[in-house]
Specification:
This protein is an alpha+beta fold. The protein has one domain. It is 38% helix and 21% strand. It has three helices and four strands; from the N terminus they run E-H-H-H-E-E-E. A two-stranded parallel sheet has the order 1-4. A two-stranded antiparallel ribbon has the order 2-3. The longest helix has 13 residues. The radius of gyration is 12 Å and the shape is globular. It starts with 10 loop residues before the first strand and ends with a strand.
Length: 87
């Protein structure tokens, strides 16, 4: 993974999200590392541009990753070091 682009701040995950990650054999830390290093997963070009702006203005940063269990989508959201990050 690349160098962190922002501080994660407080990190949260629902029990359901953690269970889906476990079923898929994916560690939460690996997705957080992708999120903080700029790998946004399956976002639209508009969301990617908004993320670039968020690194400057501190607004929300979104990531979305497809897990191999039932096509479950895990979204990481957070303000550039200013709010919780969750899945």
């Amino acid at each position: 993974m690349g160098k962190p682009l922002f501080d994660l701040g407080r990190t949260l995950a629902t029990p359901g999200a953690l269970a889906e990650l476990e079923k898929a054999g994916v560690s939460p830390a690996s997705l957080l590392a992708r999120h903080v290093s700029g790998d946004r997963g399956t976002l639209s070009q508009g969301d990617k541009r908004a993320n670039d702006e968020a690194l400057i203005d501190g607004s929300r940063i979104l990531s979305a990753y497809i897990l191999q269990v039932r096509d479950h989508r895990c979204q990481g959201r957070g303000g550039a070091g200013r709010g919780p990050t969750g899945c």
